[in-house]
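input
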Amino acid sequence: MLSTKTATLFLMVLSLLAVLPACKPSPLKELGTIESFKLQDADGNTVNWSSFRGQPVLVFFGYTYCPDFCPMTLHKIEKAYKASESSDWPTLLFISVDPERDTPAALKEYLGKFSFPSRALTGSEEELRLAAKRFGVTFYQDPANPELMQHSPVLFLIDEDATIRYLFKFSQTADELTDLVNAL
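output
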């Protein structure tokens, strides 16, 4: 028969083991705050980065003619959005890296294929380079195939204070994105 002290210790250990799975550390980190920049939305309105403070957002640099990373990432967002129980899913800010071909109409049509909240942003080459620099993103026309743009295929999870909380990699799944957004 167990002593009272041993029984108490045993119950404490069992209680701790039951709680530990709920205490896993958050995957979200503080990876830096994004400084201000200005772009235009698909309606031609000037948009200041600071206008997104107070709400979490997702940010992706891409283009409507992208054959791989962009559509696959947006489909992951769509799948995560549909699987999420969150009623306040963050708006995706899709920042075009191909302002010559990504007209406002093309951007609206492209994002209109998805049901998650989104907003297209574009600008001059100079404005887009500044925005990309703020995120540490690169993009350039592919020298081997000028129809393609090479760009960083990272989805940024940004909190309401404009702090990068997670860099969602192309290799990650929609289920992982759902969990990350729910933690945001």
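quick obs: Residues 4-19 form the longest helix (16 residues).
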